[in-house]
From TrEMBL:
PANTHER family: APICAL ENDOSOMAL GLYCOPROTEIN PRECURSOR, MAM DOMAIN-CONTAINING PROTEIN. This is EGFL6 protein. SUPFAM superfamilies: Concanavalin A-like lectins/glucanases. Signal peptide: none annotated. It comes from the Eukaryota. One of its GO terms (cellular component) is membrane. InterPro entries: ConA-like_dom_sf (IPR013320), MAM_dom (IPR000998), MAM_domain-containing (IPR051560). It comes from Falcunculus frontatus. The lineage of its organism: Eukaryota, Metazoa, Chordata, Craniata, Vertebrata. Residues 2-148 form the MAM domain.
C-alpha cells in the first residue's frame, strides 16, 4: 500500500491552477500532523477548489483501492467529489452533506485497463454555508479490490 496522507505521505499532490481557490493544510485535533481543508467561507457559492494526486507507477491491467477520510462539517457546506483522470466527465464519488462533524471513510476502486489512471482529483464545491469546512485526510492506495469494511 502507498501512504498518500499529507503529513508524511510519499505521494505527489498538486493544487489545480485553473480553479477558484486552494486547499490548505489544517492541524488535526490530536496534534499529529495535518489534513487538507477548505473552510466554508472561502470563495463564492459554486466556486471550485481542486487538489490532484498524481499516480505514476500503477501497473496496467490491475486493480487498486483508494481509501480516504473525509468530513463535511457545517450546514450547506458544499460538495466533495472525486474524479479519476481517465473518466473526466463524471465524478466516481460524491458527497454533499455531513450528518455531523465526524470523519467518515470513502473508498474508490480504480481498475487499470489498457488506459491507466494517472491522477485522482478531490474537488470541493462551495455551498451556501458560512461555517464549517470540507476536509480530506489519510489517503491510502492499496493494491487489489476495496475491502468490505
Amino acid at each position: 500500500s502507498v501512504d498518500c496522507s499529507f503529513s508524511r505521505g510519499v505521494c505527489d499532490w498538486k493544487q489545480d491552477t485553473d480553479d477558484d481557490f486552494d486547499w490548505n493544510p489544517a492541524d488535526r485535533d490530536r496534534g499529529d500532523g495535518y489534513y487538507m481543508a477548505v473552510p466554508a467561507f472561502v470563495g463564492h457559492k459554486n466556486d471550485m477548489g481542486r487538489l490532484k494526486l498524481l499516480l505514476t507507477d500503477l501497473k496496467p491491467k490491475s486493480s487498486y483501492c483508494l481509501i480516504f477520510s473525509y468530513r463535511l462539517a457545517g450546514e450547506k457546506v458544499g460538495k466533495l467529489r472525486v474524479f479519476l483522470a481517465n473518466k473526466k466527465t463524471a465524478p466516481v464519488w460524491e458527497e454533499n452533506k455531513g450528518k455531523d462533524e465526524k470523519w467518515r471513510t470513502g473508498k474508490i476502486e480504480i481498475f487499470q485497463g489498457v488506459e491507466t489512471t494517472n491522477s485522482v482529483t478531490f474537488e470541493s464545491e462551495r455551498g451556501k454555508g458560512k461555517t464549517g469546512e470540507i476536509g480530506v485526510d489519510n489517503v491510502i492506495l492499496v493494491s487489489g479490490l476495496c475491502p468490505e469494511d
